[in-house]
User: Which sequence fits this backbone?
């Protein structure tokens, strides 16, 4: 059933006469806009109505009318949701020492609420009307034009969610990807039907590993482990290749490539791909071109000179793209990481047969990466060019990623230093605003030149941070500091986080990157996740107090949120304030200005507790969208009595009257001068000597200790 639905949707959104007509007519500025529009009726009826129009659809007005009558505006299939596990002040943020960084972290933490979406249930019921693929749990979108989830973006989004202590949301985004594998056999590039022809860097298993480290939830790992195995099978079946070592011609190695098989333009970039294929004389050439373009999109690096010809005519131009000829070092590093984590999972559950299987594959993969990608002369890993049978010995930040995946010999403590020296030798570390993706400065592609991408910076920092060497760990801290300062300055000057940043020294710090097929996007899911994870690792060490930010701004302005005050007359007053910093007195002053109620007459109550002056609202749990109740102070119904003035104590303390020589009443001296006690000693066994009984006027003797009463003998 699902295959049938996807087949129908493909005729609308992936490849067909409607897609071709709309995209070639330029009805919308962005090619992606149309393929995100839901259908108003089923695909069969839509196609029938389109064919009935005949040649009249060549007129723009007729085509516009058809689209308006048969399609909805994009985005209506999604619901903005407030995450149930979002709390205003995560406990982990307390160890961020710098006040400015802590406030910034709270700003980014609040952006999760703006980026959280859930698919409407109607998509599940009528999947045939939507290009959006149904998933059962809420998720975080990247932002901007990207209205759906994206595979490898989710890894860094997850890192941020875990630091924000949003464990339920983090679990949900993983389960959505698990849902994709269970229903489609793999995780597609993103959550649209037109992304089902390709995947993205395989990071689902590392996501489960990161979630397990944060929560210790073994039951969850056991639940999803069969699906992780299924995804590994997809990559082994569809993206693995075997070949003889180019030098020895003896050893057989398995390696992985990005090899999407789509033979038509990408629907979300239709016009761009059609334009790119102009000048090619045959269908075979065009199909090969589009397959290589789709494969480059599968890498996540769309686009980079990394996939272009490195010599000859068309060198470093998109027309020379040949992704199928490149064995990417980062993909093989990711697969190596997956094998290591899978072995760890099976060891935890006592399945040593599977553990040994994956551990053996992990060891073979490490050897393959060393034999195929490692260049001993330069001290770095390179992509391998199958056409030239040689390394692509050009700097790309991906060269260092086997260090992040720990895909080198465990006892090798020299390799991390060699990688660091390579980066220094290439001049990469001279960029004090981030790690550039490449040094191809003449390129117009977004995964080149001065652009730095948050995931790449994060992986390089993590590679050196976890190296175990103090000097390299210090270098990692410096890289993290530089990246935090750049992002912080960009945020305080624009109030936005970007998907990429320009690290050129000729621009101001914090400027968005450039290049690519679309305008730079704000939001931004993986950027926020990287910053929050770096603050988790370095928040107690790093400060931006000395960083001069644009326009003289020294710290972030207050984040304004809505807060409601319900008055005694049942009127609700809305205030735009920052509940994290507002005091009770400040709120009373705002109420006095708005409602003309004197501050001394106000009595504020929240959750049954009276708000006392001298405290912040957050001390009472007040947050955005909270409702505080305003009452007047009650002074009583009767006339106020004048308070009596006392010159002395209200009650006189009783003072026992002293009798001179009163002690003589207790003793008597006889005629012989002998002294006799006048009081009777208690004869009780519990009292004994020294305990005397009181004598009453009626002749009774009473012991105050044991309560014995005796009568006087006559």
Assistant:
């Amino acid at each position: 059933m699902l295959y049938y639905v996807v087949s129908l949707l493909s005729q609308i959104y992936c490849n067909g006469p409607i897609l071709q007509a709309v995209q070639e007519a330029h009805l919308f500025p962005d090619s992606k806009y149309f393929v995100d529009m839901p259908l108003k009726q089923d695909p069969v009826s839509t196609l029938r109505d389109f064919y009935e129009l005949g040649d009249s659809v060549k007129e723009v007005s007729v085509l516009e009318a058809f689209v308006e009558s048969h399609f909805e505006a994009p985005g209506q299939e999604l619901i903005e949701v407030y995450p149930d596990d979002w709390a205003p002040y995560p406990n982990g943020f307390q160890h961020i020492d710098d006040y400015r960084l802590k406030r910034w972290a709270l700003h980014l933490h609040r952006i999760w609420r703006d980026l959280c979406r859930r698919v409407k249930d109607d998509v599940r019921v009528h999947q045939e009307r939507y290009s959006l693929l149904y998933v059962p749990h809420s998720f975080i979108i990247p932002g901007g034009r990207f209205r759906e989830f994206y595979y490898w973006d989710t890894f860094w989004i997850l890192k941020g969610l875990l630091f924000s202590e949003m464990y339920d949301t983090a679990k949900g985004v993983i389960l959505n990807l698990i849902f994709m594998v269970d229903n489609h056999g793999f995780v597609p590039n993103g959550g649209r039907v037109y992304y089902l022809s390709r995947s993205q860097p395989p990071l689902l298993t590392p996501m489960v590993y990161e979630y397990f480290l944060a929560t210790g939830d073994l039951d969850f790992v056991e639940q999803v482990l069969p699906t992780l195995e299924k995804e590994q099978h997809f990559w082994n079946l569809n993206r693995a290749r075997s070949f003889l070592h180019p030098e020895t011609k003896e050893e057989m190695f398995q390696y992985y490539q990005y090899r999407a098989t789509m033979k038509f333009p990408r629907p979300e970039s239709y016009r761009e791909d059609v334009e790119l294929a102009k000048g090619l004389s045959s269908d075979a050439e065009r199909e090969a071109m589009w397959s290589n373009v789709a494969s480059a999109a599968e890498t996540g690096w769309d686009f980079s000179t990394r996939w272009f010809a490195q010599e000859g005519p068309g060198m470093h131009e998109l027309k020379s793209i040949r992704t199928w000829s490149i064995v990417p070092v980062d993909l093989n590093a990711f697969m190596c990481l997956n094998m290591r984590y899978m072995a760890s999972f099976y060891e935890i559950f006592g399945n040593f047969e599977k553990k040994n299987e994956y551990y053996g594959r992990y060891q073979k993969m490490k050897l393959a990466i060393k034999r195929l990608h490692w260049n001993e002369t330069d001290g770095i890993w390179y992509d391998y060019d199958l056409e030239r049978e040689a390394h692509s010995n050009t700097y790309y930040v991906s060269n260092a990623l086997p260090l992040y995946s720990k895909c080198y010999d465990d006892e090798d403590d020299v390799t991390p230093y060699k990688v660091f020296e390579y980066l220094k030798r290439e001049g990469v570390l001279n960029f004090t605003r981030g790690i550039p993706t490449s040094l191809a400065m003449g390129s117009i592609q977004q995964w080149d030149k001065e652009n730095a991408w948050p995931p790449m910076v994060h992986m390089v920092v993590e590679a050196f941070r976890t190296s175990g060497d103090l000097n390299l760990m210090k270098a990692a801290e410096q890289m993290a500091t530089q990246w935090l300062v750049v992002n912080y300055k960009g945020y305080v000057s624009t109030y936005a986080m970007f998907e990429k940043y320009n690290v050129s020294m000729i621009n101001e710090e914090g400027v968005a990157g450039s290049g690519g097929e679309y305008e730079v996007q704000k939001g931004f899911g993986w950027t926020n996740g990287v910053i929050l994870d770096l603050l988790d690792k370095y928040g107690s060490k790093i400060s931006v107090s000395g960083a001069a930010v644009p326009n003289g701004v020294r710290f972030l302005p207050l984040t304004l949120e809505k807060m409601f005050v319900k008055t005694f007359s049942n009127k609700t007053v809305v205030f735009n304030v920052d509940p994290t910093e507002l005091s009770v007195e400040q709120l009373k002053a705002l109420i006095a200005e708005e409602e003309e109620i004197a501050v001394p007459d106000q009595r504020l109550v929240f959750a049954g507790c009276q708000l006392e002056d001298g405290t912040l609202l957050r001390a009472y749990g007040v947050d955005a969208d909270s409702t505080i109740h305003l009452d007047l102070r009650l002074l009583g119904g009767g006339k106020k009595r004048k308070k009596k003035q006392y010159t002395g104590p209200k009650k006189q303390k009783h003072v026992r009257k002293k009798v001179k020589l009163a002690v003589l009443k207790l003793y008597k001296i006889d005629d012989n001068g002998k002294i006799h006690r006048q009081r009777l000693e208690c004869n009780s066994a519990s009292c004994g000597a020294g305990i005397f009984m009181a004598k009453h006027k009626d002749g009774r003797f009473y012991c105050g200790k044991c309560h014995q009463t005796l009568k006087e003998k006559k």
